[in-house]
Each structure stands twice: as structure tokens, then as C-alpha cells.
Task: structure prediction
Amino acid sequence: MKKTHALAGLVFSMTLLGAGLTNAFAADETLRSLAEKNNIYIGAILNSQWFSGGLPGNYEQIHKQQFNIVVAENEMKFDATEPQEGRFSYGNGDKMVKYAKANGMRVRGHALAWHSQVPNWVNNYRNDKQKLLKVLKNHIENVVGHWKGQVAEWDVVNEAISNNEPQWRTGSVWYQGIGPEFIDSAFVWTHAVDPDAELCYNDYNLEQGVNPKAKAGFLLQQVKRWVANGIPIHCVGSQTHVEDTTTDKHFIGSPDSLRSLAKELAKLNVKLKITELDIGFKSGVNVSKHDLERQGQTFRQYLDIILEEPNADTYLIWGVSDKWSWLGGLNRQKGLIYDDNLKPKPAFDSILVRLQTFEPPQDTSKKDTTVKDSTVKDSTAKDSTKDSSDAIRPFAMPSSISMHVAGRTLFVTGALSTKSTKIEVFDMQGRPIFSTENSKGVFDLSSISEGFYVVRVKSGMSNLIQRIAIK
Ligand code: 9MR
Result:
């Protein structure tokens, strides 16, 4: 079942992968095109500012070029969709669904039953079980009914588990008024309205192990029970709001722990999705180039779960640019893959290189159908993913340079800019191995051990990425 590792199927000779592979990485590749090649979804929220037209044009251009799944930061939540009892408001959500259709993206719905962002009129029924059951059912029937067939997956229940010890979040209006059966009910009601939608339980701190004392361990017990009882749950969303371990020494989450949750869920035929990823640094600390590179590696490690685990298919980031991110409220900063000026960070590169170098296993039965069938398509729309944009310049420009390896020496030929040349070598997991800004065109790679690597040359407006073998 498990995907075989990337390198297992490589048939390249151990000599230079020469002229024939010079174009192994097309210049116009994006995260999105590479994710589609790997049968996964890659996405970012549409920030709330987008809905009011408050973001620069290149934000949207980046979003539609780089991502194939979208979720609204706040606009499909309870307080946004039913601000007054029985009065539904779909304007913003419709705007996003239209955008997704025009750009061939899958839509995630977030979130139906959550203790936060519920309007006061709901909280006023806090201890009235019968009324709360009616309120939740009516909300689900209307909202899910409105977007039936257009929202491919829902966070049916969000954050129902307490953060401090593994038990239900007892302060939630839904738990307090109804009891834990609000969860079972919400799944059943949602499924009844849209039997084709994928239904998720979504929560944070799920990357801290699956033992019964951890949140994910508690959740796993519930998922087992739901599955055994025929409750229609298809996926667990791991929000994955994590902190760089150097600025929070006590942070105990890890990609390995999340991977173990994916493996446990696979036994239950339930998917794991990463739904709200950000990897922040503590506010106020200086963040160096090296820190950003390490952050990129962590982004890559979480991506590996999605690429390699057969029951994992979605990698969704909670924002595009550090400029529009909720993280400040959590005393964290710089947790996303574009900087304040919408320029790609090392994390972007790390994800891109990993998507480029991952070799899918021979048996691709796992993800094929989901990716291809469930995006919201609008056949009349032009293919806006082909727009050119400054923001993805590193990968949009045709290259006027070339490279080859002889022995342990890398030769880069063509007009290298003396002002802005950067040569980088990554290993096949996307980890940076070597980097120089020297523009002489001849580089000694004798310190690099034998194996396959990816070289990227950025010089002026030219950009070339090529896989090489060092022997
Ligand atoms: O990013 C959202 C922010 O704009 C809201 O103020 C906040 C209110 O709760 O919700 C943020 O999104 C949250 C998401 O809906 C659920 N998981 C945690 C996210 C970050 O707080």
C-alpha cells in the first residue's frame, strides 16, 4: 500500500543526465501543476481581505496559479452564513465558489459545527438541547444544501476536543447543550444532504503522537467508534499550526507523529488531510536566512506525508503571504511560504523542489480519481492558470543558460549575470546542499557525495532547474 520511495524507480544512469533531460523541469511549472502530477491537492485559504477586494492583484494571481484547492478564512463559518436565526447569507461563499469554478479548483467548506464564531443568538440557547439540535440541523441542511455538489468536502466538526487533556471540549455550546452526540448527528445530517461530499473532523495539535494521552490518540478512539457505528466520516483534518522548534523548545509536534496518525487512520479507511498549515517563529525574534531554510525543510517534511501516505491527499496552508496571516494573534510570525512582498520564501522552493523530484509509485490508483473528479469546473472559463505573473518569476522565464557535469565539476554556460546569479544544489528531498553566488560558471562539487541532486541556477531573468547525478 505504501508508496515506494522516490528514488526506488529511477532508471537514470549514474553518469551525467545530459542534454536529454535539460528540460526535465519545465520553466512554467507551478506548485499546482506539480501537485496535479503527483495526484494531490495543494492549497491556501482565500484571506478575508480578498473578499472585500482589499488585496493587490498579484495575490489572486499567485493564488490561482499555484493552488488547486481553496477554503475561505472565515466566510463559510456559522456567524458568516447564519448571522441571524434562519437568515442565511451566502454572498461571500458564493464569490469563492465562483472563483474556484473559474479556476478549476476544489472547494473545502469550513466549518459547520464549531464552538467558536457562533453568533450570540445561538449562545442564547446554550442549555436548551432540543432547540440546539434543531438549530444545528437546520443550519447544516441550509448551508450544505446551498452548496451541494460545489463544496467537495466539509469540516463537519471543528475543534471538539479539549486542548489540555484528552477529553471533549466541555465548554462548547454544542457539547454543553447537546452532549457528544452533536458530533455523530452533524455527520449524519451533512451526509444526508450531500452524500457525495467528503466529511472531515478537523482539529489542531494532532501532530503530537497517537498515544491515548495525546489529542490524536483520543481522536483515534472516537474515529474507531464512529466507523464501527456507521457514522459517515471520511477524513481527519490536521490543522497543523506548528512552531519552529528553535523558538519554542517545548513544542512537541513533529511530522513523524502526524505520519503515525495517517497510518492509524489508513487502517480505518479514513483519510488524513493537512488543512491549515503554518510554521511560525515566536514574535519578536530575529529570523535569519538559515532559519527560513530550516522552516522550508519542515514544510517539506509535512509534504512528504501527503506525497507518501496512500490515505493522504491534501496540503493546505493557512494563508499565502506573511503580511496577511492570523499568526500574530498567537504570538508567532513569518509562518507562510510568501514574504510580506509576496515573494516566494525558501519554504516555497523547498515544496516546489520536492514536488518536482518525487517519483510516484507505479500504482497510482490511490489519488488519481479524487484529484481529477472533484475540482469545481467551469468549461466556459479561460485557463487562468496560464497567466504570467511577476510573483512567480523564478519559474516563469524561459532559460537562456545550460549546465552539465563532468566528473565532480559543474559547468554552467550562457550569459551569467555578474550582479544576480545564484547556483543552488538540493538533494532529492529538497534539502539545500550547496549554494553560491559566484558567476564564473565553473563549480567544484567534490565535497558532495555520490547520488542524485537537483541544481537550480537563477541568473538575471533566467532560471534553470536540472537533475544531475554525481558519481
Ligand atoms: O484565520 C482566522 C481568523 O481570521 C479568525 O479571526 C479566527 C477566529 O477564530 O479564526 C481563524 O481561523 C481559524 C480556523 O477557522 C480554525 N482553526 C484555527 C484558525 C486560526 O485561528
Notes: The radius of gyration is 23 Å. The chain has two domains: 15-357, 393-470. DSSP finds 15 helices and 17 strands in the chain.
